[in-house]
Hints:
The chain is α/β, with parallel strands linked by helices and 204 residues long. The chain has a single domain, classed as Rossmann fold (3-Layer(aba) Sandwich). It is built from six helices and 13 strands. The strands form two sheets. The protein has a nine-stranded mixed sheet. It has a four-stranded mixed sheet with strand order 6-5-7-10, covered by helices on one side. The chain is globular, with a radius of gyration of 15 Å. The mean pLDDT is 95.
Amino acid sequence: MTLALIDYGAGNLRSVENALRAAGADNVSVTADPDAVRRAERIVLPGVGAFAACMGALSAIPGMVEALNERVIGQAAPFLGICVGMQLMADAGEEFGTHPGLGWIGGTVAKLEPDDPEARVPHMGWNDVVPSVAHPLIVPGEAYFLHSFAFTGADPAMLAATTSHGGTVTAAIARDNMIGVQFHPEKSQAYGLALLNRFLDWRP
């Protein structure tokens, strides 16, 4: 099995790569090559930083967005987005203005505005992951979060999990062969490794 871990200068690549290998992946290709993405059986898009900068970096790789659309949307390759990689699945992000995303799952990435003044932004630390719909990759547990913006407005059928940080916050979204998680599996110890292992075995 070939797994493409996309290198667009906006992810914690080595930590994610190490976690994937620890979860059982034996052929991880860290790549910025659209043709490698087209050949991959599974695709992981990490991401750390601002939505616009990450989308800009991804779009700046000639043919990469087209390859992702071809392989993920057109050919239904299993896909995992992590943190900003999950947010890029949205229609748009509102960090430093409104910027288009990949448009794979309807919704917008907006600034966290907790109802509880004690809840600080960024949301950083361990929080419960609470499944919203039945999904083979998402189970209850605790994961590590670090973000200031969150996915909003997703179709309830595509809202896979929530967490609580001064109110309900999207923790995972899913559609068909795609799943995105706001938390960091590579930093979530046993819970994160188990999720990555399930992703490696997933046959959507």
